[in-house]
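Archive entry: two folds, one per protein. Generate the first.
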Amino acid sequence: MTNQTDRPLLTVLLFASLIVCISMGIRHTFGLFLAPMTQDHGWSREVFALAIALQNLAWGASQPFFGLIADRYGARRVLWAGAALYALGLAGMAWATSGTGLAASAGLLIGLAQSGTTYSVVFSAMSRLLPPARISWAMGIVAAAGSFGQFLMVPVGAGMIGGIGWFGTLLGFSLLALAMVPLGAALTRGLQPGAAHAGQSAMAAVREALGERSFLLLATGYFVCGFQVVFMGVHLPSYLLDKGFSANLGMTSLALIGLFNIAGTFLVGHCGTIYPKRYLLAFIYAMRSVVIVAFLVAPLTPLSVYLFSAAIGMLWLSTVPPTNAIVAQVFGVRYFGMLSGFVFLSHQVGSFLGAWLGGKLFDATGSYDVVWGICIALGIIAALANLPIDERNLEARRTAVAGRA
């Protein structure tokens, strides 16, 4: 393993943050395209929702492999390939004229692109550039940058859609995605692959992780995170439209979620250096259920939407730093990209169901009530799942057991 500790901390954070800001910023605008694209093409909401659901599934299914490639051969080429796929997928989404075309572009290509340009790969590079004591804090900073990307890109995307239409906006985003190529080169300058061919194999690392109860509990919680976040990100603007509000309120809601999550994610990343991360995760999931219940029982007004967006924004991506920090803390950074990718796969299975079921159950029942109820129940399950997680490093556990023998 090679740690480039001579790289200035702020330089690493800057380039990592810009990559995640662009990748996650574009991703969080997709809910804005649902209404205009389905109306212009005459598609049902399920067609669009299925494509976004496939995107999340492709992202999750490929993430362990992209993470392993980054671990073994370095993150630079993975970031470059991800940026190219992102640009191609956005352009293909603009020209898609059928549900199949939309699924191939917005679903498969962009899903693969996000595997190469988001947290697992970027964090894999960071874990070798920064001292272990700063990892949770640094992950909080970079995850907050993803939230800033949402805050920035949602109003930008809405303005572009209103000005040049959804087609031109997608092409503009396609060009923006290519900016991640030079940013990836800057982040990974001089960084060597971390997982040498000698020692523990990748398959042995996977078997070791899957044999750990805490790893499975962590993945269970992340499944819930994916379901909730993607359901709300994709369907909240349309939910508000159905209730008689303007499209501007939906755009503002997503932007506020991104704004408040900057603070929430940074705060949780910092708290992860002080408090047990499993307790932070349990609190986040429990509070999501409380906030959703309050939103649904209160009279629906612009003010209640703003308050909900601020509250849920504080909890939005704040699961990312403690979840990934636990993986690094328990299993080390040797195969961090791959193992965090497996946890993220669980997240994306939840994301698939959150996006798809949102459209499927809406078409079947005419409302989102059932899916809101599922979100509440899952939040409670995730809170309970995280409480018994053991955060101790595996080597430290073995040393302690040997010392008692």
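Generate the second and append.
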Amino acid sequence: MGIAEIMDKIVGLLWGLPLLVSVLGVGIFFTIKSGFWQFRYFKHAWKYAFSLLKKDRNNEEKGGILSSYQAVATALGSAIGIGNIAGVASAIAIGGPGALFWMWVCALIGMATKMAEITLALYYRTKDPDGEAYGGPTYYLQKGFKEKGFFGWRPLAVIFGFGIMSDYFLGMSAYTISEAVSVTFNINQIAVGVGFAILVYAVILGGIKRLGEVSAVVVPIMAIFYVLAGVFILLKDASSLPGTFELIFKSAFKPIAPVGGFAGASIMLVARTGIARGIYSNEAGWGTAAMIHSTAKVDHPIKQGLLGIVEVFVDTIIVCSITGLVIINTGVWNSGLSSSALALKAFESGLGTWGSIILTLGIFLLGWTSVTAKYTNYEIILRHATGKNYKIRKTIIKLMRYGVALPGLCLTIYAVKKGIPSSIIWLFADMVTALPTFVNLIAILLLSGKFFELLRDYNKTKLGKSQGEPSKIKLFYEDKSKITNK
């Protein structure tokens, strides 16, 4: 049995029925109990998101490091990356067109899941002596579980942290990015990896604030450019779109026989691949975006949670759909290719050489913002793990900043020398996503009462008859009665 088969079996166990049911079940729970809030107030979420573009809200908001817009841009930068291009392509290559359907399902209910985890991250965050606020799943595991009288937060926090830090040491994104640039421009892949590492350091060494500033500029421009290119390709062959959607829906619930270079897939494989890659892309349920959002300056936790709805929609329903529909509609999905190579072939078939160039630029720039944005997660995990040991924290964070690009560069060199296919690299992605997702889903489910309390307050003071009435909600670190739980 080769390494690919072994890894596939491990991923099959990690992303087995229990985790798939948990992802869908938790999303459905928050959707139904909130009264389908993400759909009823979808327009409200977008209105708030657009309002952040019109004016600087720093004077109205409090806590944190980044403005709300910078936080959502950074979180989108983390989400919209190679997962939207190479990740979608590899999902279709393994699970067939039906994988895109399960990504859509994961996104629609995941909007509620992501809203909940971001809200809890804002509420339970901790303020450092320097005035900067940080939060995320490890924080609400500790504080929320203590508040509710639950036991066992430490083992769960360790498992979550292990999964997130595994992503740091694997450096999968750098390999996929260097592969795409190397293939398109016929440049040595290792040389591309070195250049990419330098660009990563250019942002990372400036700290979290610089991450927000770069993401606020690069992410919207590149995402819009990529979507427009994809829409143009689809419109060129619009007559094939009805058949493409029919194939997507049919193959989501029916085993797919081998065809062309496609090896065939069971319904379980289709669903598993679509949901796993969907979460890796939009991060709903994974808990990673909650850490980035926790640094935002905002006066009500639900406000930042609203942006989770927008993020998931943009990431999956728009950007991932563009990638998937282009791959399927151009007929290259069963070519036997995978990852960035499959996406490149699809865009090239629609736009010629320019298609490859546009896609490569998309992979490179969005991958760049994704890798740099994910650094925020690693730093927040270590900040929580080191507690009040500020000297140790400072040393570890400094070492981590200087080492952040090395795993990706080492993986690129090793994979090129050993000829490791990109499909195996994406199995690593599925592995590092599974454990943190499972832990995070347990946490937000057990702390759902606090989320719904915050949501009721927001509905009353921001949306209901008592609009304009001051909120009675205090962030956890502002409540003096809870100061001992910090």
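Annotation attached to the second fold: The chain has a mean pLDDT of 85. The two ends are 49 Å apart (CA to CA).
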